[in-house]
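Blinded run. Sample ID left blank on purpose so nobody reads anything into the name before looking at the predicted structure. Input follows.
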Amino acid sequence: MTLNRHDDKAYSEYVRKVFRKLFHEEPRVYIRESVVNIVLSRSRLVDFCTSIGLKIGDKVRQSVDIPSWVKRRAVYRIACVRGLMDTDGCIYNECHSIRNKRYCYPRLSFVNHSIPLRRSVFAILSALGFSPTMRNNRSVHLESRDDIMQYFNIIGTSNPKHRMRFQNVLGEVG
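Blinded prediction complete.
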């Protein structure tokens, strides 16, 4: 797993602990200029991941999707979207100036180049009562303040960076 070395420092510690807990192995950590790579490489881990429906290799070329067993249970769907958003998502203010007045709107965005994965995230968010939108043919967004508040109340985050940005963007804790 590759994360931003600075912005995701606390989250990378969380990921290391999850790897240890799930796989009873200590992952290797490689720090490069701006990234940290958390690596756990074991043939039995690869066997396990393929047995539960994950694919080996380039995720975009293979058009990865959420495994069907995850989609069948609400608790798994929610945890999966949380994990995807924690790694490939962001929360920010989208700002525009009109007649010298600045308008800012909160946005929660999931960006991924796998079309089936984006469609599944969109479908899960819709089924949970959110009103997601697709943008630029590469991202799924929640664009209303209420949706973003509900997202953090229902789905939440394990990434401290997102929790802090949520507080900064919306000025509240969910």
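Unblinding after everyone has recorded impressions. The mean pLDDT is 90.
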